[in-house]
Amino acid sequence: MSISKIEEKKQIKRDKLLASAYTLFLTRGFIDTSINDIVDYAGVAKGTFYLYFKDKWDIKDQVIIEKSRLLIDEAIINANNKMIDKFDEKIISITNYIIDDFINNKDLLKLINKNLSFGLFNKVLESEYINIKEMFAQELKNYNNKIKNPEVVLYMIIELIGSSIYSSIIYDIPLSINEYKPYLFEQIINMIK
Amino acid sequence: MSISKIEEKKQIKRDKLLASAYTLFLTRGFIDTSINDIVDYAGVAKGTFYLYFKDKWDIKDQVIIEKSRLLIDEAIINANNKMIDKFDEKIISITNYIIDDFINNKDLLKLINKNLSFGLFNKVLESEYINIKEMFAQELKNYNNKIKNPEVVLYMIIELIGSSIYSSIIYDIPLSINEYKPYLFEQIINMIK
Amino acid sequence: MSISKIEEKKQIKRDKLLASAYTLFLTRGFIDTSINDIVDYAGVAKGTFYLYFKDKWDIKDQVIIEKSRLLIDEAIINANNKMIDKFDEKIISITNYIIDDFINNKDLLKLINKNLSFGLFNKVLESEYINIKEMFAQELKNYNNKIKNPEVVLYMIIELIGSSIYSSIIYDIPLSINEYKPYLFEQIINMIK
Amino acid sequence: MSISKIEEKKQIKRDKLLASAYTLFLTRGFIDTSINDIVDYAGVAKGTFYLYFKDKWDIKDQVIIEKSRLLIDEAIINANNKMIDKFDEKIISITNYIIDDFINNKDLLKLINKNLSFGLFNKVLESEYINIKEMFAQELKNYNNKIKNPEVVLYMIIELIGSSIYSSIIYDIPLSINEYKPYLFEQIINMIK
DNA sequence: GATGAATGAGTCTTCATTCAT
DNA sequence: GATGAATGAAGACTCATTCAT
After folding, report:
1. Substitution target from D32, D116, D156, D178 for chain C, most C beta carbons within 10 A
2. C touches A (3+ CB pairs < 8 Å)?
3. Residue A184 — very low, low, confident or very high, per pLDDT cuts 50/70/90?
4. Upstream peptide bond of B182 is cis (omega within 30 degrees of 0)
5. Closest residue of A to B190, CA-based?
6. What is the pLDDT of residues A39-86, one digit of tens each?
7. Cβ D168 vs Cβ D160: under 8 Å
8. Three-state DSSP state, C105
9. pLDDT digit string (tens) for D89-141?
């Protein structure tokens, strides 16, 4: 077997484990998923897990990074495809895309919400293909050059979205997500003005 | 011993366990604190724990509710004592008080940040002595009667504070807490205008 | 309060505990009933239990003795009331009465079957009002004076009934109880011939 | 190590646990034997127990099935070796063999007596090498073709033996086992006539 | 006699991790 | 690289019993 074939086989095992962990974390939750469950579901031996991941927390981080990046990339690509030029509209479009995705996948929202630490989130933003922070800073400058610190603005936007949509989507608190959206969007626009 | 004496003794036992759990959760973290640790530290028998609490999660919730209420009440009382009349200044004062408390007690911040669910937080706001939500709504109305939905505004303020000060205090991200404060306060003022 | 009144009150407490234990043993089973359950159900304090019974096994024995005696006494009285004169018919009548009772109260059958040790059973036969062993020996002698050892015959009859009706009533093994009865009765008649 | 070697090793571990449980159940009784005791005595780790058995009840059932089968098989083989041709004599021989074994191993008798439920007993009769029920039915037919329901007869014989020898061997009630044997054998002969 | 808070030994069970094959 | 049997520390929880009131 050629070296690349072996590498490929390894990648397949790793992906199997990631996919297995993803499914189980969503359906049973992180705490109630054991490494045993993950390897059983993936159809590999228990020892194999430790060839690819350090422990349960390690694979959880990998799962979240992968899924979050995917989601954000999709949201950006979608905005680009729609040829939205104005920065404020673009931000709202991206936010809206992400919210709608979470509405349809509440388990993912729960998983991310409970486990997305800061260090992790920065890794997410350092996506392979798009440097989100830089892009945001650049576009915000073009849109409103009075803003001194675009990083802080991005940070506050992300925090406000990240923390407030959770209970809106899951508990309809303070309002249902569709009622809440206008308030949220208004506030975001406010932040970049 | 009279009944009230017995009740008093029971209360003392309960408080001992709460204080013990509080200390250990802050120093070792929730996961690494066992019920064994809690009862040892409190100097009571293991069975006694189950007389007062259902399990580790139960006592954690009680600890967080108690400490959070205490902190918010203190912040409000402090603002009242300083005879701050203007609503916007009062809000900033309260926020500032809470932030300063967390700066000095980062372990509490970590504990609360990781564990303050929404259901729990609502219990905190239903403090025995002060109905925070109503008070806020009333004062906001007097301050700015154009705002339609004071509850949503309170919610957004709490979410923005709650989620963003954590990484600022703990990681200096996006800025150190003292550098971040002006941005945060400006945004809060913005929200009630 | 007069002494007899006090005695009466004590008896009431004891009876409450017995009745409570009886109900719980039948519904939840012996192992899954704790002393806590018994005193809660009886509405008395935990310490009170130990004023009347040594432990869970003690009260279980008392429950079984009481209920078994009651059942046997009823069966005998019923046979007497029906003026059955022939000894073999009387034995069958009594057996039949007991079986029918168990058919209607399978939980009691289960409890007794699992817990009726020999020592216990002898206490049951020494009922306050009727000395069953003596009575049986006397009547068997009149019926068939060739039998040397009536005690052994009684013993074998009781063992055969006691062990075989259980699985017939509960599992229909080897036959349903109504199909099994003729075989059983035939065998009993055989034993006293 | 080849697969069969591994399987063999697993079998040895299982057997160790079974033997350990057997010894401890006999000497201390089932209730007073903890899983801790079993694994300590077997010299394996606690987790290993759960690799082979669900819980204490599971291993108890396995122990009883194994030992009962062994005993019955031995009794039958012994009868066959002695070239006993007449069916009635064969039954008595088998019964006698089993009784004598129990006389020498009263702890086993106690264990089996307390725990041999019906479901379990049927598993015992479905021994790997000898189908006891069929064999009995066949031989009984040859011996006495007037009997309609050989299964019921076998059932009654087993029940009578199983329940009555216990108190005879353990308590000499109603007679010592040697005095009781003639009565019992007579009755068994009666049942197949 | 009655109470019920307090006890703490004892038990089961899980599960991450290792390592010989 | 892959396997999965074995490990054993760690933890949650129960419950019979006591005893001060």
Report:
1. D156
2. no
3. very high
4. no
5. A190
6. 999 999 999 999 999 999 999 999 999 999 999 999 999 999 999 989
7. no
8. coil
9. 999 999 999 999 999 999 999 999 888 877 788 888 876 677 888 889 899 99
Closest residue to D191, CB basis, from C151, C171, C187: C187
Which D residues in the span 98-157 are in contact with C, Cβ-Cβ below 8 Å?
A: 118, 149, 151-152, 155-156
Residue D62 is predicted with a pLDDT of 93
Q: How far apart, in whole angstroms, are the C-alpha atoms of residue A87 and residue A139?
A: 7
Residue range A133-143: mean pLDDT, rounded: 89
Whether residue A14 is predicted with pLDDT greater than 60 in this model: the reply is yes
Helix (H) or strand (E) holding C2: none
Residue type, D139: E
Q: Where are the alpha helices (DSSP H) in chain C?
A: 3-28, 35-42, 46-52, 56-81, 87-104, 106-115, 118-125, 132-143, 150-171, 177-191
Tokens 């064994």 locate to B36
Q: Convert B107-161 into a string of H (helix), E (strand) and C (coil).
A: HHHHHHHHHCCHHHHHHHHCCCCCCHHHHHHHHHHHHCCCCCCHHHHHHHHHHHH
Percentage with pLDDT > 70 across chain B: 97
Chain F footprint positions (protein CB, under 7 Å): 1-21
pLDDT at D1: 53
Q: Find, in chain A, the residue whose alpha carbon is nearest to that of B180.
A: A152
Say whether pTM exceeds 0.90.
Answer: no
Q: Which residues of B touch A123 (CB under 8 A)?
A: none
8 Å CB contact between A50 and A58: no
pLDDT value of residue B1: 55
Our CA-based measurement puts residue A160 at a distance from the nearest CA of chain B, in whole angstroms, of 5
Per-residue pLDDT, A41? 95
- Is the confidence at residue B168, as pLDDT, over 60? yes
* C1' (F17) to CA (C50) span, angstroms: 9
Domain ranges of chain D: 1-53, 71-191
Three state DSSP letters for chain B? CCHHHHHHHHHHHHHHHHHHHHHHHHHHCCCCCCHHHHHHHHCCCHHHHHHHCCCHHHHHHHHHHHHHHHHHHHHHHHHHHCCCCCHHHHHHHHHHHHHHHHHHCHHHHHHHHHHCCHHHHHHHHCCCCCCHHHHHHHHHHHHCCCCCCHHHHHHHHHHHHHHHHHHHHHHCCCCCHHHHHHHHHHHHHHHCC
Minimum Cα–Cα distance from C180: chain D residue: D152
- Provide the token pair at D193: 């006539």
> What kind and span of H or E run contains D33?
none
Type and span of the H or E element at C173: none
CATH architecture for segment(s) D1-53: Orthogonal Bundle (1.10)
Overall average pLDDT of the B3-17 stretch: 87
Buried b (16+ CB within 10 A) or exposed e, D41-62: bbebeeebbeebbeebeebbbb
Give the Cα separation of D45 and D40 in Å (integer). Answer: 8
Confidence tier at A179 by pLDDT (50, 70, 90): very high
Q: Are A109 and A169 in contact (CB under 8 A)?
A: yes
Q: Is pLDDT at A1 greater than 60 in this prediction?
A: no
Q: What is the DSSP string of A105-145?
A: -HHHHHHHHHH--HHHHHHHHS-SS--HHHHHHHHHHHH-T
Report, as an integer, the average pLDDT of D29-53: 93
* pLDDT exceeds 70 at position A35: yes
**Which pairs from C10-15 meet CB under 8 Å and 24+ separation?**
C13/C44, C13/C48, C13/C51, C13/C52, C14/C52
| Amino acid at residue number D79 | A
Cα C147 from Cα D15, distance rounded (Å): 50
Residue ranges for chain C with pLDDT beneath 50: none
Instruction: From the options 3.30.70, 3.40.50, 1.10.4100, 1.10.357, give the CATH code of B56-191.
Output: 1.10.357
